[in-house]
Amino acid sequence: MPTAYLTRIVDFSATHRYFHPAWSAERNAVAFGASTHEHQHAYRCVVTVRGTPDPETGMVIDLAALDRLLSEEVVARFGRRRIHVDVPEFADGGAMPTGEMLCLDIWRRVAARLPAGCSLARVRVQEDPTLYAEYRGEA
Fold this sequence. Notes:
four-stranded antiparallel beta sheet, 139 residues, alpha+beta
């Protein structure tokens, strides 16, 4: 049976800022501009999975299971949070909370929990209508 793709979109609001603690305020300002100040986004996260549809259900993955997974690993993890403070991987000089790094973090967490026969094809994190980052599993 051929491969099929399923995409689910979840939304969450969160704040972040870009600031490298080892750099001076001036260097941070040059590198990150206004984003050195905490600001909020209404994020949209688009997750696409791929696999062979189950011959009995016709599904690549049970949609309720995917919804639970995204609720836990995306919405509950980032929603209403100060990502640069409240999410351990991004706090205290950890990863910079850019869209790109959020994509990689979400990919790692979601991929680890998908059932056999199902894999990730794409994770997109959109900060606003004109800006998004995407990861497709390339090394």
